[in-house]
Amino acid sequence: MIRDTAGTACRRNSPDVGDVGLSVKLTLLTAALAVALPVLLSSCGSSDSAGPATTQAAASTPSILIEDAWVRATVGAKDTTMTAAFMSLTNPGDADIRLTSATSPLAGMVQLHEMAMKDGTMVMREKPGGVNVPAASHTHLSPGGDHVMLMGLEQPLKPGDEVPLTLEFSDGTSRDLTVPVKVFTEEEEHYHPSETPAAK
Amino acid sequence: MTGRPSRRQLFGVAGAAAVGAAAGGAIVAVDNEAPQQPPVRAISPYGEHQPAIAGPTPEHAELVALNLLPETDKAALGRLMRLWSDDIVALADGRPAPGDSTPELAVANVALTTTVGLGPRVFELTGHKPPGLDDLPVMRHDRLEPAWSGGDLLVMVGADDAVSVVHAVRRLVADAKPFATPLWRQTGFWNSTGADGRPVTGRNLFGQVDGTGNPAVGTPDFDHTVWSSDGPEWFRRGTTLVVRRIRMNLDAWDELTRSEQERAVGRTLSTGAPLTGSAEHDELDLQARDADGRLVIAENSHARLSHHSVNDGRRIFRKGLNYVQDNGPTRESGLIFLSHQADVAGQFLPLLARLDAADALNDWTTTIGSAVFALPPGFQADSWLAHELLS
Protein backbone atom coordinates (compact mmCIF):
# COMPACT_ATOMS: atom_id res chain seq x y z
CA MET A 1 0.00 0.00 0.00
CA ILE A 2 2.97 2.31 0.33
CA ARG A 3 3.53 4.31 -2.78
CA ASP A 4 5.35 7.45 -3.72
CA THR A 5 3.17 10.35 -4.65
CA ALA A 6 3.89 13.98 -5.17
CA GLY A 7 1.12 16.44 -5.84
CA THR A 8 -1.73 17.12 -3.51
CA ALA A 9 -4.88 19.15 -3.74
CA CYS A 10 -4.27 20.31 -0.24
CA ARG A 11 -3.19 23.74 0.74
CA ARG A 12 0.30 23.71 2.12
CA ASN A 13 0.60 23.85 5.83
CA SER A 14 2.15 27.05 6.98
CA PRO A 15 2.60 28.28 10.50
CA ASP A 16 1.18 31.69 9.87
CA VAL A 17 -2.17 30.30 8.82
CA GLY A 18 -2.69 30.10 12.54
CA ASP A 19 -6.25 30.37 13.70
CA VAL A 20 -8.19 30.12 10.52
CA GLY A 21 -11.37 31.44 11.97
CA LEU A 22 -12.57 27.97 12.61
CA SER A 23 -13.08 28.30 16.31
CA VAL A 24 -16.77 28.68 15.61
CA LYS A 25 -16.71 25.19 14.21
CA LEU A 26 -14.93 24.04 17.28
CA THR A 27 -17.95 22.22 18.54
CA LEU A 28 -17.59 19.79 15.71
CA LEU A 29 -14.50 18.41 17.26
CA THR A 30 -14.27 19.20 20.88
CA ALA A 31 -15.67 16.51 22.92
CA ALA A 32 -14.77 17.71 26.34
CA LEU A 33 -11.09 17.03 26.64
CA ALA A 34 -11.68 15.20 29.85
CA VAL A 35 -13.81 12.75 27.96
CA ALA A 36 -11.41 12.43 25.09
CA LEU A 37 -8.29 11.90 27.11
CA PRO A 38 -8.86 8.26 27.94
CA VAL A 39 -8.89 7.56 24.23
CA LEU A 40 -5.29 8.55 24.24
CA LEU A 41 -4.09 5.83 26.53
CA SER A 42 -1.58 3.20 25.56
CA SER A 43 1.20 5.53 24.68
CA CYS A 44 4.27 3.44 24.89
CA GLY A 45 7.63 2.83 23.49
CA SER A 46 10.96 4.18 24.64
CA SER A 47 14.59 4.19 23.78
CA ASP A 48 14.73 0.76 25.38
CA SER A 49 12.44 -0.71 22.81
CA ALA A 50 13.76 1.23 19.86
CA GLY A 51 16.52 -1.18 19.05
CA PRO A 52 14.56 -4.41 18.89
CA ALA A 53 11.58 -2.69 17.33
CA THR A 54 13.69 -1.26 14.57
CA THR A 55 15.33 -4.56 13.91
CA GLN A 56 12.02 -6.32 13.87
CA ALA A 57 10.26 -3.91 11.58
CA ALA A 58 12.77 -3.49 8.82
CA ALA A 59 16.45 -3.45 8.13
CA SER A 60 16.66 0.11 6.86
CA THR A 61 14.26 2.93 7.58
CA PRO A 62 10.83 1.64 8.50
CA SER A 63 7.96 3.95 7.79
CA ILE A 64 4.93 4.88 9.82
CA LEU A 65 2.40 2.23 10.82
CA ILE A 66 -1.22 3.31 10.90
CA GLU A 67 -3.86 1.70 13.09
CA ASP A 68 -7.40 2.27 14.28
CA ALA A 69 -8.24 4.87 11.65
CA TRP A 70 -11.82 6.14 11.52
CA VAL A 71 -13.81 9.10 10.30
CA ARG A 72 -16.68 10.54 12.25
CA ALA A 73 -20.00 10.42 10.45
CA THR A 74 -21.63 13.72 9.47
CA VAL A 75 -25.23 12.54 9.30
CA GLY A 76 -27.15 14.35 12.00
CA ALA A 77 -24.58 17.12 12.18
CA LYS A 78 -25.62 20.72 11.57
CA ASP A 79 -22.78 21.11 9.13
CA THR A 80 -22.35 18.03 7.00
CA THR A 81 -19.57 19.51 4.92
CA MET A 82 -16.81 18.86 7.42
CA THR A 83 -15.60 16.15 9.72
CA ALA A 84 -12.38 14.67 11.02
CA ALA A 85 -10.32 11.51 10.72
CA PHE A 86 -8.60 9.96 13.72
CA MET A 87 -5.97 7.24 13.97
CA SER A 88 -2.91 5.98 15.76
CA LEU A 89 0.48 6.51 14.15
CA THR A 90 3.41 4.36 15.20
CA ASN A 91 6.98 5.18 14.28
CA PRO A 92 9.14 2.08 14.64
CA GLY A 93 12.28 3.85 13.42
CA ASP A 94 14.97 5.81 15.18
CA ALA A 95 14.22 9.18 13.59
CA ASP A 96 11.18 11.38 14.02
CA ILE A 97 8.72 11.40 11.12
CA ARG A 98 6.06 14.03 10.52
CA LEU A 99 2.68 13.62 8.94
CA THR A 100 2.89 16.58 6.58
CA SER A 101 -0.34 16.54 4.61
CA ALA A 102 -3.43 14.57 3.68
CA THR A 103 -5.86 14.43 0.78
CA SER A 104 -9.16 12.75 0.04
CA PRO A 105 -11.17 12.70 -3.17
CA LEU A 106 -14.31 13.20 -1.08
CA ALA A 107 -13.11 16.43 0.54
CA GLY A 108 -12.42 19.76 -1.16
CA MET A 109 -9.74 20.50 1.39
CA VAL A 110 -7.91 18.49 4.03
CA GLN A 111 -5.82 20.02 6.80
CA LEU A 112 -3.90 18.77 9.80
CA HIS A 113 -5.34 20.40 12.88
CA GLU A 114 -4.53 20.77 16.53
CA MET A 115 -6.52 21.99 19.48
CA ALA A 116 -4.86 24.84 21.36
CA MET A 117 -5.68 27.38 24.03
CA LYS A 118 -5.96 30.91 22.71
CA ASP A 119 -7.07 33.78 24.92
CA GLY A 120 -8.47 31.33 27.40
CA THR A 121 -10.58 29.32 24.99
CA MET A 122 -9.84 26.14 23.15
CA VAL A 123 -9.54 26.69 19.43
CA MET A 124 -8.99 24.41 16.53
CA ARG A 125 -6.31 25.51 14.13
CA GLU A 126 -3.99 24.24 11.47
CA LYS A 127 -0.99 22.60 13.05
CA PRO A 128 2.27 24.26 12.07
CA GLY A 129 4.63 21.80 10.45
CA GLY A 130 2.21 18.91 10.61
CA VAL A 131 1.93 16.15 13.19
CA ASN A 132 5.16 14.75 14.58
CA VAL A 133 5.52 11.06 15.36
CA PRO A 134 8.57 10.71 17.60
CA ALA A 135 11.04 7.92 16.95
CA ALA A 136 10.04 4.63 18.55
CA SER A 137 6.75 6.02 19.74
CA HIS A 138 3.13 6.65 18.90
CA THR A 139 1.05 9.68 18.13
CA HIS A 140 -2.70 9.46 18.55
CA LEU A 141 -5.01 11.58 16.45
CA SER A 142 -8.11 11.74 18.62
CA PRO A 143 -11.25 13.77 19.21
CA GLY A 144 -10.18 16.76 21.25
CA GLY A 145 -6.59 16.52 20.02
CA ASP A 146 -4.72 16.54 16.76
CA HIS A 147 -6.80 15.33 13.85
CA VAL A 148 -7.07 15.24 10.09
CA MET A 149 -9.74 17.80 9.18
CA LEU A 150 -11.85 17.02 6.13
CA MET A 151 -13.57 20.08 4.71
CA GLY A 152 -15.76 20.76 1.72
CA LEU A 153 -17.33 17.31 1.75
CA GLU A 154 -19.48 16.85 -1.29
CA GLN A 155 -21.88 14.49 0.44
CA PRO A 156 -22.81 13.51 3.99
CA LEU A 157 -20.84 10.61 5.44
CA LYS A 158 -22.90 7.95 7.17
CA PRO A 159 -21.79 5.09 9.37
CA GLY A 160 -20.75 2.16 7.22
CA ASP A 161 -19.29 4.34 4.46
CA GLU A 162 -15.59 4.34 3.68
CA VAL A 163 -13.40 7.34 2.95
CA PRO A 164 -10.27 7.11 0.82
CA LEU A 165 -7.50 9.08 2.48
CA THR A 166 -3.90 9.61 1.40
CA LEU A 167 -1.32 10.63 3.96
CA GLU A 168 2.09 12.13 3.13
CA PHE A 169 4.99 11.85 5.52
CA SER A 170 8.23 13.77 5.91
CA ASP A 171 10.27 10.68 5.05
CA GLY A 172 8.86 10.90 1.53
CA THR A 173 6.46 8.01 1.94
CA SER A 174 2.79 8.18 1.22
CA ARG A 175 -0.01 5.92 2.41
CA ASP A 176 -3.37 5.25 0.82
CA LEU A 177 -6.00 4.32 3.40
CA THR A 178 -9.60 3.23 3.22
CA VAL A 179 -11.05 4.57 6.43
CA PRO A 180 -14.38 3.46 7.90
CA VAL A 181 -17.01 6.01 8.90
CA LYS A 182 -18.33 5.54 12.41
CA VAL A 183 -20.78 7.19 14.75
CA PHE A 184 -19.28 8.98 17.69
CA THR A 185 -22.08 9.37 20.15
CA GLU A 186 -20.22 11.35 22.78
CA GLU A 187 -20.33 14.45 20.68
CA GLU A 188 -23.96 14.35 19.73
CA GLU A 189 -24.92 16.98 22.24
CA HIS A 190 -22.92 19.41 20.16
CA TYR A 191 -25.22 18.74 17.25
CA HIS A 192 -28.42 18.48 19.23
CA PRO A 193 -28.07 20.52 22.42
CA SER A 194 -29.98 18.91 25.24
CA GLU A 195 -32.97 20.68 26.77
CA THR A 196 -31.84 19.42 30.13
CA PRO A 197 -29.20 21.67 31.59
CA ALA A 198 -25.89 19.95 31.94
CA ALA A 199 -24.31 19.70 35.33
CA LYS A 200 -23.18 23.23 36.12
CA MET B 1 -6.23 -2.45 5.57
CA THR B 2 -4.32 0.23 7.37
CA GLY B 3 -0.77 0.23 8.62
CA ARG B 4 0.41 -3.01 10.09
CA PRO B 5 2.00 -4.97 11.75
CA SER B 6 0.50 -3.91 15.01
CA ARG B 7 2.21 -2.10 17.77
CA ARG B 8 2.04 -5.26 19.80
CA GLN B 9 4.44 -6.88 17.40
CA LEU B 10 6.67 -3.87 17.61
CA PHE B 11 6.63 -3.05 21.25
CA GLY B 12 5.27 -6.14 22.88
CA VAL B 13 2.18 -6.58 24.95
CA ALA B 14 3.60 -4.50 27.77
CA GLY B 15 3.53 -1.57 25.41
CA ALA B 16 -0.08 -2.08 24.53
CA ALA B 17 -0.95 -2.28 28.19
CA ALA B 18 1.08 0.69 29.32
CA VAL B 19 -1.04 3.56 30.40
CA GLY B 20 0.16 7.01 29.59
CA ALA B 21 -2.75 9.36 29.36
CA ALA B 22 -1.19 12.37 27.74
CA ALA B 23 -2.29 14.01 24.55
CA GLY B 24 -0.49 13.87 21.27
CA GLY B 25 1.81 10.92 21.59
CA ALA B 26 3.57 11.13 24.87
CA ILE B 27 6.47 8.82 25.38
CA VAL B 28 6.13 6.59 28.38
CA ALA B 29 9.30 4.85 29.35
CA VAL B 30 8.99 1.16 29.90
CA ASP B 31 9.65 0.50 33.55
CA ASN B 32 12.43 -2.03 33.69
CA GLU B 33 12.18 -2.09 37.45
CA ALA B 34 8.68 -3.53 37.32
CA PRO B 35 8.72 -6.43 39.75
CA GLN B 36 6.81 -8.97 37.69
CA GLN B 37 5.52 -9.26 34.18
CA PRO B 38 2.02 -10.68 34.23
CA PRO B 39 1.64 -13.85 32.20
CA VAL B 40 0.91 -13.06 28.59
CA ARG B 41 -2.71 -13.99 27.94
CA ALA B 42 -3.14 -12.06 24.72
CA ILE B 43 -3.98 -14.17 21.68
CA SER B 44 -2.90 -12.86 18.29
CA PRO B 45 -5.87 -11.93 16.11
CA TYR B 46 -3.90 -12.99 13.03
CA GLY B 47 -3.21 -16.41 11.63
CA GLU B 48 -3.97 -19.04 9.07
CA HIS B 49 -7.22 -19.83 10.86
CA GLN B 50 -9.43 -17.71 13.08
CA PRO B 51 -7.51 -18.13 16.33
CA ALA B 52 -10.24 -19.15 18.78
CA ILE B 53 -11.25 -22.23 16.83
CA ALA B 54 -8.37 -24.49 17.84
CA GLY B 55 -7.84 -22.66 21.12
CA PRO B 56 -9.22 -23.58 24.53
CA THR B 57 -12.87 -22.90 25.27
CA PRO B 58 -13.03 -19.43 26.81
CA GLU B 59 -14.27 -18.95 30.35
CA HIS B 60 -16.84 -16.44 29.17
CA ALA B 61 -18.32 -16.15 25.71
CA GLU B 62 -21.14 -14.49 23.86
CA LEU B 63 -22.51 -15.41 20.47
CA VAL B 64 -24.57 -12.97 18.43
CA ALA B 65 -26.31 -13.95 15.22
CA LEU B 66 -27.28 -11.07 12.95
CA ASN B 67 -29.40 -10.82 9.86
CA LEU B 68 -28.26 -8.61 7.00
CA LEU B 69 -30.37 -5.57 6.31
CA PRO B 70 -32.13 -5.69 2.92
CA GLU B 71 -29.84 -2.99 1.50
CA THR B 72 -26.63 -4.80 2.50
CA ASP B 73 -25.07 -6.07 -0.69
CA LYS B 74 -21.78 -7.82 -1.30
CA ALA B 75 -19.81 -4.55 -1.30
CA ALA B 76 -21.40 -3.47 1.98
CA LEU B 77 -20.62 -6.85 3.52
CA GLY B 78 -17.00 -6.26 2.51
CA ARG B 79 -17.03 -2.91 4.30
CA LEU B 80 -18.40 -4.58 7.42
CA MET B 81 -15.71 -7.26 7.32
CA ARG B 82 -12.96 -4.64 6.96
CA LEU B 83 -14.43 -2.67 9.83
CA TRP B 84 -14.80 -5.76 12.03
CA SER B 85 -11.27 -6.87 11.19
CA ASP B 86 -9.89 -3.58 12.53
CA ASP B 87 -12.07 -3.89 15.63
CA ILE B 88 -10.95 -7.48 16.18
CA VAL B 89 -7.28 -6.52 16.04
CA ALA B 90 -7.70 -3.56 18.40
CA LEU B 91 -9.78 -5.51 20.91
CA ALA B 92 -7.38 -8.47 20.91
CA ASP B 93 -4.55 -6.04 21.65
CA GLY B 94 -6.53 -4.50 24.50
CA ARG B 95 -7.08 -1.24 22.66
CA PRO B 96 -10.47 0.40 22.23
CA ALA B 97 -12.01 -0.22 18.83
CA PRO B 98 -11.80 2.91 16.67
CA GLY B 99 -14.50 5.35 17.77
CA ASP B 100 -15.19 3.43 20.99
CA SER B 101 -17.42 5.45 23.30
CA THR B 102 -16.27 3.49 26.37
CA PRO B 103 -12.55 3.09 25.71
CA GLU B 104 -11.71 2.34 29.34
CA LEU B 105 -13.45 -1.01 29.04
CA ALA B 106 -10.86 -2.26 26.55
CA VAL B 107 -8.18 -4.03 28.57
CA ALA B 108 -5.24 -6.13 27.51
CA ASN B 109 -4.25 -9.63 28.52
CA VAL B 110 -7.68 -11.23 28.90
CA ALA B 111 -7.29 -13.81 26.12
CA LEU B 112 -9.95 -12.04 24.09
CA THR B 113 -10.80 -13.62 20.76
CA THR B 114 -13.41 -12.81 18.16
CA THR B 115 -14.70 -15.35 15.67
CA VAL B 116 -16.84 -14.42 12.69
CA GLY B 117 -19.12 -16.68 10.65
CA LEU B 118 -21.28 -16.38 7.55
CA GLY B 119 -24.70 -18.05 7.42
CA PRO B 120 -26.02 -19.94 4.38
CA ARG B 121 -28.06 -17.02 3.03
CA VAL B 122 -24.96 -14.83 2.66
CA PHE B 123 -23.89 -16.97 -0.26
CA GLU B 124 -26.95 -15.89 -2.23
CA LEU B 125 -25.14 -12.54 -2.39
CA THR B 126 -21.63 -13.78 -2.93
CA GLY B 127 -21.80 -17.23 -4.49
CA HIS B 128 -19.03 -19.74 -3.70
CA LYS B 129 -21.00 -21.42 -0.93
CA PRO B 130 -19.10 -24.12 0.93
CA PRO B 131 -20.68 -27.48 0.04
CA GLY B 132 -22.95 -28.89 2.73
CA LEU B 133 -23.54 -25.54 4.42
CA ASP B 134 -27.30 -25.68 4.81
CA ASP B 135 -29.61 -25.26 7.77
CA LEU B 136 -29.92 -28.62 9.46
CA PRO B 137 -33.18 -30.53 8.98
CA VAL B 138 -35.42 -30.58 12.04
CA MET B 139 -34.77 -33.70 14.09
CA ARG B 140 -37.49 -35.71 15.77
CA HIS B 141 -36.47 -34.54 19.24
CA ASP B 142 -35.93 -30.92 18.22
CA ARG B 143 -38.26 -28.24 19.52
CA LEU B 144 -36.62 -25.40 17.62
CA GLU B 145 -37.58 -21.84 18.46
CA PRO B 146 -37.06 -19.13 15.83
CA ALA B 147 -35.67 -16.92 18.58
CA TRP B 148 -32.59 -19.18 18.81
CA SER B 149 -32.21 -20.30 15.22
CA GLY B 150 -30.57 -19.25 11.98
CA GLY B 151 -28.75 -16.05 11.14
CA ASP B 152 -26.74 -14.48 8.32
CA LEU B 153 -23.71 -13.55 10.42
CA LEU B 154 -22.22 -14.84 13.61
CA VAL B 155 -19.88 -13.00 15.88
CA MET B 156 -18.56 -14.89 18.87
CA VAL B 157 -16.37 -13.25 21.50
CA GLY B 158 -14.57 -15.17 24.21
CA ALA B 159 -12.29 -14.01 27.02
CA ASP B 160 -11.16 -14.70 30.56
CA ASP B 161 -13.25 -11.81 31.67
CA ALA B 162 -16.99 -11.26 31.21
CA VAL B 163 -16.70 -7.47 31.19
CA SER B 164 -14.34 -7.62 28.24
CA VAL B 165 -16.68 -9.95 26.36
CA VAL B 166 -19.67 -7.68 26.86
CA HIS B 167 -17.68 -4.62 25.84
CA ALA B 168 -16.29 -6.21 22.69
CA VAL B 169 -19.71 -7.49 21.62
CA ARG B 170 -21.19 -4.05 22.20
CA ARG B 171 -18.61 -2.48 19.87
CA LEU B 172 -18.92 -5.13 17.19
CA VAL B 173 -22.72 -4.98 17.18
CA ALA B 174 -22.68 -1.16 17.19
CA ASP B 175 -20.32 -1.06 14.23
CA ALA B 176 -22.48 -3.60 12.40
CA LYS B 177 -25.61 -1.47 12.79
CA PRO B 178 -25.50 0.05 9.29
CA PHE B 179 -25.32 -3.46 7.82
CA ALA B 180 -27.06 -6.01 10.03
CA THR B 181 -29.33 -6.35 13.02
CA PRO B 182 -29.09 -8.89 15.86
CA LEU B 183 -31.32 -11.94 15.63
CA TRP B 184 -30.30 -13.82 18.77
CA ARG B 185 -27.69 -13.63 21.48
CA GLN B 186 -26.42 -16.45 23.65
CA THR B 187 -24.12 -16.10 26.62
CA GLY B 188 -22.22 -19.04 28.03
CA PHE B 189 -19.41 -20.05 30.32
CA TRP B 190 -17.00 -22.91 30.66
CA ASN B 191 -14.26 -23.98 33.01
CA SER B 192 -11.37 -25.53 31.15
CA THR B 193 -8.76 -25.07 33.87
CA GLY B 194 -8.25 -27.58 36.66
CA ALA B 195 -7.57 -26.75 40.30
CA ASP B 196 -3.86 -27.18 39.59
CA GLY B 197 -3.99 -24.66 36.77
CA ARG B 198 -3.64 -27.27 34.04
CA PRO B 199 -6.07 -27.44 31.12
CA VAL B 200 -8.98 -29.84 31.53
CA THR B 201 -11.80 -30.88 29.22
CA GLY B 202 -14.46 -29.18 31.34
CA ARG B 203 -17.92 -30.24 32.43
CA ASN B 204 -21.47 -29.52 31.37
CA LEU B 205 -24.25 -28.87 33.88
CA PHE B 206 -25.14 -32.58 34.05
CA GLY B 207 -21.69 -32.91 35.61
CA GLN B 208 -20.32 -34.85 32.66
CA VAL B 209 -16.81 -34.34 31.37
CA ASP B 210 -17.80 -33.03 27.95
CA GLY B 211 -15.60 -33.12 24.85
CA THR B 212 -13.25 -36.02 25.61
CA GLY B 213 -13.72 -37.67 22.23
CA ASN B 214 -12.27 -34.74 20.29
CA PRO B 215 -9.37 -35.17 17.90
CA ALA B 216 -6.28 -33.59 19.48
CA VAL B 217 -5.39 -30.11 18.26
CA GLY B 218 -2.33 -30.15 16.04
CA THR B 219 -2.77 -33.71 14.80
CA PRO B 220 -3.48 -34.62 11.17
CA ASP B 221 -6.76 -36.06 12.41
CA PHE B 222 -7.75 -32.66 13.81
CA ASP B 223 -6.72 -30.82 10.66
CA HIS B 224 -8.61 -33.26 8.46
CA THR B 225 -11.69 -33.02 10.67
CA VAL B 226 -11.83 -29.26 11.04
CA TRP B 227 -10.23 -27.36 8.18
CA SER B 228 -11.72 -27.22 4.73
CA SER B 229 -9.30 -28.47 2.11
CA ASP B 230 -11.58 -28.68 -0.89
CA GLY B 231 -14.61 -26.69 -1.96
CA PRO B 232 -14.33 -23.04 -2.93
CA GLU B 233 -10.83 -21.56 -2.95
CA TRP B 234 -11.67 -18.74 -0.52
CA PHE B 235 -12.80 -21.26 2.11
CA ARG B 236 -9.59 -23.29 2.31
CA ARG B 237 -8.34 -23.30 5.92
CA GLY B 238 -11.81 -22.22 7.03
CA THR B 239 -14.27 -24.40 8.89
CA THR B 240 -17.95 -24.59 9.71
CA LEU B 241 -19.67 -24.15 13.03
CA VAL B 242 -22.91 -25.71 14.17
CA VAL B 243 -24.53 -23.91 17.10
CA ARG B 244 -27.28 -25.82 18.89
CA ARG B 245 -28.96 -24.58 22.03
CA ILE B 246 -29.72 -27.67 24.08
CA ARG B 247 -32.04 -27.31 27.04
CA MET B 248 -31.19 -29.74 29.83
CA ASN B 249 -33.80 -31.02 32.24
CA LEU B 250 -31.71 -30.91 35.40
CA ASP B 251 -34.63 -31.74 37.69
CA ALA B 252 -35.31 -35.05 35.92
CA TRP B 253 -31.57 -35.79 35.61
CA ASP B 254 -31.12 -35.28 39.34
CA GLU B 255 -33.75 -37.97 40.00
CA LEU B 256 -31.60 -40.63 38.33
CA THR B 257 -29.22 -42.81 40.25
CA ARG B 258 -25.56 -42.24 39.56
CA SER B 259 -25.28 -45.54 37.72
CA GLU B 260 -28.26 -44.64 35.55
CA GLN B 261 -26.58 -41.34 34.72
CA GLU B 262 -23.30 -43.05 33.86
CA ARG B 263 -25.04 -45.73 31.79
CA ALA B 264 -26.78 -43.04 29.71
CA VAL B 265 -23.44 -41.53 28.81
CA GLY B 266 -21.20 -44.60 28.87
CA ARG B 267 -18.61 -42.80 30.96
CA THR B 268 -17.94 -42.40 34.66
CA LEU B 269 -18.95 -39.03 36.05
CA SER B 270 -15.94 -38.66 38.33
CA THR B 271 -13.21 -38.80 35.69
CA GLY B 272 -14.97 -39.00 32.34
CA ALA B 273 -13.29 -42.36 31.72
CA PRO B 274 -15.24 -44.81 29.59
CA LEU B 275 -17.08 -47.39 31.72
CA THR B 276 -14.61 -49.90 30.29
CA GLY B 277 -11.53 -47.88 31.36
CA SER B 278 -10.00 -45.96 34.20
CA ALA B 279 -8.71 -42.70 32.72
CA GLU B 280 -10.50 -40.03 30.71
CA HIS B 281 -8.70 -40.67 27.46
CA ASP B 282 -8.75 -44.47 27.57
CA GLU B 283 -10.15 -45.92 24.37
CA LEU B 284 -13.69 -47.23 24.57
CA ASP B 285 -14.08 -51.02 24.57
CA LEU B 286 -17.33 -51.23 22.69
CA GLN B 287 -17.42 -55.05 22.85
CA ALA B 288 -16.97 -55.45 26.62
CA ARG B 289 -19.85 -57.13 28.49
CA ASP B 290 -20.59 -57.42 32.18
CA ALA B 291 -21.23 -60.64 34.17
CA ASP B 292 -24.85 -60.66 33.00
CA GLY B 293 -23.77 -60.44 29.39
CA ARG B 294 -24.90 -56.83 28.90
CA LEU B 295 -22.73 -54.36 27.00
CA VAL B 296 -20.80 -52.27 29.53
CA ILE B 297 -21.06 -49.26 27.24
CA ALA B 298 -24.76 -49.54 26.46
CA GLU B 299 -26.19 -49.75 22.96
CA ASN B 300 -27.94 -46.39 23.34
CA SER B 301 -25.24 -44.63 25.37
CA HIS B 302 -24.07 -41.26 24.12
CA ALA B 303 -20.40 -42.26 24.09
CA ARG B 304 -21.05 -45.29 21.87
CA LEU B 305 -23.41 -43.58 19.44
CA SER B 306 -21.15 -40.59 18.95
CA HIS B 307 -17.92 -42.58 18.65
CA HIS B 308 -16.23 -42.19 15.28
CA SER B 309 -15.64 -45.93 14.99
CA VAL B 310 -19.40 -46.46 14.64
CA ASN B 311 -19.85 -43.40 12.39
CA ASP B 312 -17.81 -44.48 9.38
CA GLY B 313 -14.82 -42.67 10.85
CA ARG B 314 -16.58 -39.32 10.65
CA ARG B 315 -15.42 -36.97 13.35
CA ILE B 316 -16.28 -33.52 14.58
CA PHE B 317 -14.51 -31.11 16.93
CA ARG B 318 -16.87 -30.51 19.81
CA LYS B 319 -16.92 -27.52 22.07
CA GLY B 320 -19.58 -26.25 24.38
CA LEU B 321 -20.63 -23.49 26.69
CA ASN B 322 -22.91 -23.90 29.66
CA TYR B 323 -25.79 -21.50 29.84
CA VAL B 324 -28.47 -20.47 32.24
CA GLN B 325 -31.49 -18.39 31.29
CA ASP B 326 -33.34 -16.82 34.17
CA ASN B 327 -36.91 -15.63 34.03
CA GLY B 328 -38.03 -14.25 37.36
CA PRO B 329 -37.79 -17.13 39.83
CA THR B 330 -37.33 -19.82 37.20
CA ARG B 331 -34.10 -20.91 35.59
CA GLU B 332 -33.54 -22.83 32.39
CA SER B 333 -30.17 -24.57 32.13
CA GLY B 334 -28.44 -26.05 29.17
CA LEU B 335 -25.55 -26.30 26.80
CA ILE B 336 -24.62 -24.14 23.82
CA PHE B 337 -23.38 -27.03 21.74
CA LEU B 338 -20.67 -26.00 19.29
CA SER B 339 -19.29 -28.31 16.63
CA HIS B 340 -16.57 -27.59 14.10
CA GLN B 341 -16.18 -29.67 10.99
CA ALA B 342 -15.01 -29.07 7.44
CA ASP B 343 -18.38 -30.14 6.06
CA VAL B 344 -21.67 -29.92 7.99
CA ALA B 345 -23.64 -32.23 5.72
CA GLY B 346 -20.83 -34.74 5.35
CA GLN B 347 -19.62 -34.99 8.93
CA PHE B 348 -22.12 -33.57 11.38
CA LEU B 349 -25.53 -34.39 9.95
CA PRO B 350 -25.10 -38.21 9.89
CA LEU B 351 -23.94 -38.11 13.51
CA LEU B 352 -26.84 -35.89 14.52
CA ALA B 353 -29.33 -38.22 12.86
CA ARG B 354 -27.86 -41.22 14.69
CA LEU B 355 -28.03 -39.49 18.04
CA ASP B 356 -31.55 -38.22 17.41
CA ALA B 357 -32.71 -41.74 16.65
CA ALA B 358 -31.33 -43.49 19.71
CA ASP B 359 -29.27 -41.40 22.18
CA ALA B 360 -30.24 -42.16 25.79
CA LEU B 361 -29.57 -38.52 26.63
CA ASN B 362 -32.55 -37.47 24.49
CA ASP B 363 -34.74 -38.17 27.53
CA TRP B 364 -33.21 -35.23 29.38
CA THR B 365 -32.16 -32.88 26.58
CA THR B 366 -34.13 -30.84 24.02
CA THR B 367 -32.58 -28.81 21.25
CA ILE B 368 -34.35 -25.45 21.06
CA GLY B 369 -32.06 -23.58 18.68
CA SER B 370 -29.97 -24.45 15.64
CA ALA B 371 -27.75 -22.50 13.27
CA VAL B 372 -24.87 -23.17 10.90
CA PHE B 373 -22.10 -20.85 9.77
CA ALA B 374 -19.04 -20.91 7.56
CA LEU B 375 -16.06 -19.51 9.47
CA PRO B 376 -13.69 -17.89 6.97
CA PRO B 377 -9.97 -18.56 7.29
CA GLY B 378 -7.95 -16.21 9.45
CA PHE B 379 -6.43 -12.99 8.19
CA GLN B 380 -2.99 -11.43 8.35
CA ALA B 381 -1.89 -7.93 9.22
CA ASP B 382 -2.19 -6.68 5.65
CA SER B 383 -5.59 -8.18 5.03
CA TRP B 384 -9.12 -8.64 6.43
CA LEU B 385 -11.73 -11.31 7.07
CA ALA B 386 -13.12 -13.14 4.05
CA HIS B 387 -11.41 -10.79 1.61
CA GLU B 388 -10.98 -13.61 -0.86
CA LEU B 389 -14.76 -14.01 -0.96
CA LEU B 390 -15.72 -10.35 -0.87
CA SER B 391 -12.99 -8.44 -2.70
Structural overview:
The complex is a heterodimer of chains A (200) and B (391). Chain A has one domain (12-55, 62-189): Immunoglobulin-like, CATH 2.60.40. In chain A, 10% of the residues lie in helices and 38% in strands. Chain A contains three helices and eleven strands, in the order E-H-H-E-E-E-E-E-E-E-E-E-E-H. Chain A has helices at residues 33-36, 47-57, 188-191, and strands at residues 2-3, 65-72, 83-91, 97-103, 107-118, 121-126, 131-133, 137-141, 147-153, 162-169, 174-182. The termini of chain A are far apart. In chain B, the strands form two sheets. Chain B has a four-stranded antiparallel beta sheet with strand order 2-3-1-4, covered by helices on one side. In chain B, strands 6-7-5-8 form a four-stranded antiparallel beta sheet. The longest helix of chain B has 19 residues, at 74-92. Chain B is globular. The model of chain B is unreliable at 1-6 and 11-29 (pLDDT under 50). Chains A and B meet through helix 2, strand 2, strand 3, strand 8 and strand 11 of A and helix 1 and helix 2 of B.
Number of strands of chain A: 11
Structural class of chain A: mainly beta
Reading off the top of the CATH hierarchy, the class of chain A is best stated as: Mainly Beta
Report the biggest beta sheet of chain B as strand number plus sense, adding barrel if it closes: 4 strands, antiparallel
Number of helices of chain A: 3
**CATH level-two architecture of chain A:** Sandwich
**Uncertain regions of chain B: pLDDT < 50 for 5+ in a row?**
1-6, 11-29
CATH topology of chain A: Immunoglobulin-like
Sequence of strands across the biggest β-sheet of chain B? 2-3-1-4
Q: State the major sheet of chain A.
A: 11 strands, mixed
Question: Termini distance of chain A?
Answer: 49 Å
- Topology, number of strands of chain B: 8
Overall morphology of chain B = globular
Can you say what the CATH homologous superfamily of chain A is?
PCu(A)C copper chaperone
Calculate the mean pLDDT score of chain A and round it: 72
| Assembly status | heterodimer
Rg calc of chain A: 17 Å
Average pLDDT for all residues of chain B: 92
